[in-house]
Amino acid sequence: MTAAFRSILTPSAIVRLVLGWGAFAALLFAGPLLAPSVPAPLLVTALIIIVGVILVCAFGVVHEAEHLARRLGDPYGSLVLTLSIVLIEVVLIAAVLLGPGEHATIARDSVMAVSMIILNAVIGLCLLVAGLRHGSLAHNRTGVSTYLSLIIVLAALAFALPALIGTNGSYEAWQEIPIIVLTIGIYAFFLFRQMGAQAADFHEVDPRLTTPAAVTRRSASTVEETPPKQSIVEIISTHRSEIIVRLALLIATVTPIVLLSHDMASLLDDGLGRLGAPVALSGVVIAIIVFLPETITSVRAAWQGEIQRVSNLCHGAQVSTVGLTIPTVLLIGLLTDQPIVLAESPANLLLLAVTLLLSVTAFAAKRVTAIHGAAHLVIFAIFAITLFS
């Protein structure tokens, strides 16, 4: 037990924890010094230090996530990382809504930015990397279809329907309750099936990864060998201590990333304001940083040709983001009598619709290629253009 604990809580892991939480504490104390009138060199220095600390912590999160993924197997391993990041993000959005000031559009802006980043930037980059290195790759079409089905439904409920049946982009109070119940219900049912009867729908199916020779090569290239086929209950029972410690370390390392990202939002707003950049760009940058660990993990999976794991991470994160954020903010709006504006602009709705259509088209094929990735990256570039329009 002690030896295993030491092998997990290494000096590197301790340094990352100290850096992450130390930077967050320093930012709290230095808040008054980083007022809007702060000189530009000090502002830039602070941002560089924060981003540097976030990068160090992000690699720690990726390290723990990969160990958990190998131990638990997919989809459970990917789900741990996804839910860790998304739950913290949801809590922080809720904290902003419960704080002072008007934040009617924060959920819409945050989830939309995350959607464009995950579905276009991250998936596009992963498909491009995997396609250029491995050629076309086979994915589990049933699993990906499950993800996309939920993404389409949840995106329609979140961004499109409020503009058609609501008032000023918000659902009426009597409409919010069934939307909350339906969203939570379908998300809970999805998790129940994904972790139970349909778990096999989210496993790798590419022959280059599933043949005995391929499994042997992959095991030899990792720190820990791929665990034998066991049920998730047996795995947790056998390796309970290791899983608990790694999960706690992952959460303790990912939390300062999200906290630092949100605390640096005011600094970034100030800096972008001085440059004359659009305010919406700040939200996109923050969303990119918050999901940096997941992005790194996804790209590394793509590099190894694990295209189904890319889907589990990216599409799973999108489902969780919308499935958890929207009912949470609507419930807070009901309890605090705040308006929650969800309806998106026509330009963003068009881009979201094109993104979903492209996703369905790309993953409906037996294999995905680098061209599919390039197409997703083009959509993200167009989204970036709209921020400046």
Automatic annotation (TrEMBL):
Coiled-coil segments on the chain, per record: none
Subcellular location(s) of the protein: Membrane
Keywords, sorted A to Z: Membrane, Transmembrane, Transmembrane helix
Pfam families registered for this protein in UniProt: Na_Ca_ex
Membrane-crossing segments per the record: 12-34, 40-63, 75-98, 110-132, 144-167, 173-192, 243-260, 272-292, 313-335, 347-365, 370-388
Bilayer topology: Multi-pass membrane protein
Residues annotated as domain Sodium/calcium exchanger membrane region: 45-195, 248-387
Keyword Kinase among record annotations: no
PANTHER family: SODIUM-POTASSIUM/PROTON ANTIPORTER CHAA, SODIUM-POTASSIUM_PROTON ANTIPORTER CHAA
Name of protein: Calcium:proton antiporter
